[in-house]
Amino acid sequence: MKGILLVAHGSRVQETKEIAYRYFEDLRKKYKNCKLGFMEFNEPSIENAVKEFLKEKVEEIVVLPLFLFEGIHIKKDIPEILEKYPIKFKILKPILYDKRVSGILFERIEKGEIY
Asked: Which of 22, 37, 100, 105 is most buried, by CB atoms within 10 Å?
């Protein structure tokens, strides 16, 4: 059985956590066996999410990073965390460059959405 792990960085800012949970809820509508894990500051941690998958007899985790860039967390930190557990995993690409994101940026400029 496979599980999907949405990984977010985490933040001390409450709104950031809430946005990660909104993406997670969207995923759960389509993929029932998924969990959310944070790198730091928030719970559940990646480790706790993996432990839950192991309890559920999940054999492989598909890691979906909620990151814009492929930095040290994706290249080093997340694999090091996951390698501690007896479970197979594959890490999907982060968002990177995507014209759809450019469309969101254009929309924000045109609407003048202020922070």
From this structure: 37
